[in-house]
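Batch job 17 of 40 flagged for manual review because the log was empty.
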Amino acid sequence: MPADNVWRADVRKLPVHPKSAAMVASIGAGAAMHPDFGSGTWEGAPIGIPVTTVPAGQKKVTVSFEYADESDRGPYPIPANAKIEGGPQADGDRHVIAFDKTACKVYELFSAYPQGGGWRAGSGAVFDLRSNKLRPAGWTSADASGLSIFAGLVRYEEVAAGRIDHAIRITVPKTRTGYTWPATHSASSATDANLPQLGQRLRLKASVSTGSMPRQARIVADAMKRYGVVVADHGSAWYISGAPDDRWDNDALRALKSLTGSDFEVVDTGGLVVSRTSGAVR
């Protein structure tokens, strides 16, 4: 993403949202954080949301969508053997992400299944990682929020390099109707003002000590202080998303479970907005 993109915005000095305490309580102030990625497998599938890196010139195929009116038509450069979240037999979200490094684009599908020489999916989106353009208002993506999943994943390469320079995708059990910039889509009819919205930004409080954490966990935690987390979808409370990799140290990542909801605060991102149609920040 561009240097001025909202995913890469430093949120350490942003004001605390007036509803922060109530929103954190609604997610679960006493609930522990859970790194939803790691090494090895769980129930036969890699742990996390996998990314399939495709070469320049990867053949593009047709994708048929259930929510075609809010999906980018394609075609998509997704090979038949692309990695599926949860594995080929999964019955969950079945996200598929194809990363074309040469073109600097990601192609993302939700509820993806191979079909003939192509794919069928619930919804899909194409993101140019050189652009700040958001999806049209009201549109979903492969994520409920209308945002890129890839943009918020913790990836091993980042941690190995010593620094994550973007916000991290997180799920919460329930949101209220509407959405908070930079999200473009709502997936709830609830009107309780104490619930967060999709797109809501939280940060790990500056007062939380991370120095004694193992290196892999500390780098993730420090990113949550500087860049925060973005509410991207419904799911278990405080689950942060990452890509599976056999080089993760699951014991080290487990240290993130020492963090609870009360260690976080919702921030007011209104002062960052340049345009509601752009992810660029002031």
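Reviewer: the log was empty due to a logging misconfiguration, but the result itself is present. The mean pLDDT is 97. Unflagging and moving on to job 18.
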